[in-house]
Every structure is written in C-alpha cells, then in structure tokens.
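Question (not urgent): is this output format expected?
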Amino acid sequence: MTLRRNIFTILVVTALLLLLGGGLTKLFMLRFSSGNMYPPYSSLRADPKGCRILFESLKRLPGLSVERTFESVDLPEKPETGILMLGGKKGQLLHIADHELRPFLLSGGRAVLACRPEPPDHEEPTAPKDLTEEKESEPTGTEEEKPPKELSANDRWGIQFCRFNRSELKEMEQQETALPESPELDPVPWKSSGWFDELSSDWTVIYRFLDKPVIIERSWGEGSVVLIADSYLFSNEAMVTQRSTATLTRLIGPVRHLLFDETHLGISSRESVMMLLNRYHLQGVLAALLVLAGLFLWQQSTGLIPKQTPRKQSVIDSETATDSMQGMTNLLKRHIPRKKLMETLIAEWRSSFRNIPSMQHRNEQLDKEIRQATEKTHPVDLYNQITKTFNERKHSWHTHSNSFRKS
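Got this back:
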C-alpha cells in the first residue's frame, strides 16, 4: 500500500512539473515571437514599435540580400552595400559614423542613420554667448601658443542637432507629416521634435517639418550617408497604416546588400549556453541531465529500499554482543603476536590475582605447566591444559570439603 502511494505521489509531482515547464516554455515562446523584450526600432520586434515588417519585406525582394548584424561594425568595403541603424541616439549615431563607418563610406557604402524620436523642448531657446567678448575681457599678456582645438563630430560633419521649443508645440500638433522637397516623394508621418541646423553646403535636404530640415543626405567619398531625425517611418505601425514605398526606396538607395544593425541598440551576439546547445543539437543531453537530476532528488527524498519491520530488542542485544566480541577478537589479533599470546594472558592473570594469598598455589601450578610445555605446543592446547588442571584441583578441593563436613 505504501509503495503504491509513493508511485502515485511521484506521478502527480511529475505531471505538475511537466505542466509548469510547458507553461514557462509557452510564455517564453510568446515573448520571443512578439520580440517586445528587444529595444524599440529593432528588427527583431513584431509589435508596433519594432521594424520586423520592413526587414521581412525587404528580405523577400529579388536581387537584394538582407541580414542582421549583431557584432561590432565590421562592414565589407565594397560598393552597393548599405546599413540601417534605426532608433539610436543622435550623438551615438554620429560618433559611429565618424569613427567606424568612415572606411565603409569612403569605399562606396551607404549608411542610413535614423535617430530616436525626441519629445519637444519645453524651454525657450537661448541665444549663444558671444565668446569674442569673453576673450577681450581676459587679461592680456605673454601666453604660450595653444595647439589647435580638435573639431567635434558635429563640426566635421557640418551639422547641429536641434529640437522644437514649446512655442512651436501647437504647430506640431496641427501638422503631423513631413513634406518632401521633391514632388516625386510622398509626405511621411512625423512624431519627433528633432531637426537639423547649421548644415554645410555638402548636405541636401530631402524632407522638412515646419520648414526645418529633418531628413538630409550627403556624399562621403564614393559612398553616401542619410541622417533622419525620426525612426517612426520605418516602424511596423507606419508600415501598416502610413507606408510610403517611394520614400523608403529613396532612402535605402540602390544597394544589393543591406544590413540591419542591432549592436547600437545593445543587442550583441554573446553566445550563451542555450545558444550553444541549439547550435550543436544537444537538447537530448540536456533532457537526460534533467531526468538524472530528478532521479537524484527523488532518491534523496524517498529511499529506494523498502523499510524493514522493527526487530525485537533481544535480537538487537545479541547482535550487539556478537559485534563487541568480534571487535575484541580482531583487536587482539592485530596487536598481540601468536607466540606471545599465552605469555600475555598469564601476565594479565597474575597481575589480577597478585595480592590474593589463596591464589599462590595456582601460580606454582601454572609455573609447572609452563615448564612442561615446549615451543611447539599450540597456545590453545596449553590454555586447555592449564584450565583443566585448575578445574581438577578445584573439584578435588570441593570433594575433600564435602567429606569433611559429613564426618
């Protein structure tokens, strides 16, 4: 009855664990399928804030290879290759373009950099300080020549990032689309308050929002770069509700190889244990390890050997006595040589009865038996002979005592 109950308990616990594992697996599959655990404007997201629709659509076009990159920017220096960086910070994108994309652009590549949408600036713009007045107020004197100040990325690219202030909020609420400079393009939805200012002559304005440049382009070596102040037009929501195919074609350009960069969003290809298991098809090994772990826990919680019935105390006492005697025998065998066994026994016997006068005659008889024994005499035979002699003398003493009493 107890065994059946244990089996039933094990089956119930196993079923509950399987249900729990299945539920967790389903939950993770839903999370990964929607991709909402990834940053906004990632090509891995399928919700309105992602860009998976654009990625999947471009991947189906003939003559165009589309893939994601999860490693640091190491682009092939060959023409007709483009890279999309969507939803990045404006300073981060310009830094990447200035330090990592320069060889790629000089060799004929095309980079499309779309910034993360920014909320409006609620502060009024303040006029920049006149640095010339500060220099005139400084004390004159002999000054060492200072090295020329290194140009910032904004200065090298000939661009400044700005945001609309609160006085322009009402105009932003009324106008929700950016207008193209070319009549061949369509208006696109616009959600960001960012725009570009202080453009150098190398830049070409493609779209404006409230008469401010928001999508610009320039050539760099044999390649070109496009800066976009908003990434919304690439999102899944815009692809479904307000898609502009002509604008997307114009921005991506005539490329045959297109990369969706994910590293600037913090998504890298750090291989985990689960990724290695999937790559080398070791799911069966993992399942076997889980089964072994379950069996180990089961063995620790429930003994595999059935419980024994309680034994009587007399049986336990007899076994304890036997074990004690066996232990004493083993101890004597280890520490007393066979030749010195009788010598040790006699010495212990004499030390026990040394102060008893009535035992002196037994000592004399014991010395006599020892003198008669030879080296070949077995210790057991000698012990039996001594015991027999003592018993005979004891029996004769009792007989003499009884006869004396009768008389």
